[in-house]
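Fig. S4 source data, part A: sequence.
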Amino acid sequence: QLQASGGGFVQPGGSLRLSCAASGRTSNNYVMGWFRQAPGKEREFVAAIRWSGGNTAYADSVKGRFTISKNIVQNMVWLQMNSLKPDDTAVYYCAARAGLIWGLIRSSSEYYYWGQGTQVTVSS
């Protein structure tokens, strides 16, 4: 089970840190991902990280501004979002799947577990 939190309202240029708490057993072959969905748009990939090892990946639209990180002991994944833009406004979801092939991490349909979503609004 995944529980996402940390969303809110922020002005352009501001920062937010999203958290995703994973409960239950997680194995080393998990991939944890963040996706977002804006009104009227499809859910899109934001970032992903391997539960074991240092592999990370980002959407081009957030590269250099967002950072995904993890703490295996705490079963937590975070998404640090800096230099936020109005286009970042969306509901953000964390997702997970054991044994996900790294080449498929950008496809939302490949993830088995999803958090409930947290709203991020960037506006002046």
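Fig. S4 source data, part B ends here. The chain has a mean pLDDT of 94.
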